[in-house]
Amino acid sequence: MENIELNDQIKELNKVKLAVLEIKKNYTNIKASQLKKDVKNMIEILDKIYEEIFNNSKSLKSFRLYGEFYLPTISKLIEKYNYFKEKNVQTKDAVDLLKNIEIVIPKLNVHLENKYNSFFESELIDLDAEIKVLMQELGNK
Known about the structure:
This protein has helices spanning 2-27, 33-55, 57-62, 64-87, 92-118, 121-139. By secondary structure, it is mainly α. Helix 4 runs antiparallel to helix 5.
């Protein structure tokens, strides 16, 4: 039973790793400076997330949907952004799409940073409770 669970975890980690590698590949082709900064920030956050989910199967379980859907979608958005910029497509729809991608990437960064921080929430709550107990004990003496 453990081998099946381990194999599933390896598959999930590979999905995330491949999606992050695609984002990194598409990052190198970005010409717009602000978007490039935003995607670089995203990559840094994703690297922290990957390290955490690699080391903690609980975190990996809560990140499953990201490897299957969100990260490949983000990669596709960046790829299409590069494509339309390279082709210099100037239709209203293309311009709106590019602007929306520029708006959504920083919002995704906030979300991903919050997701990373959520991996440590229960640990922080437990430590806070332990500190309160210690403080009560120290206050009683």
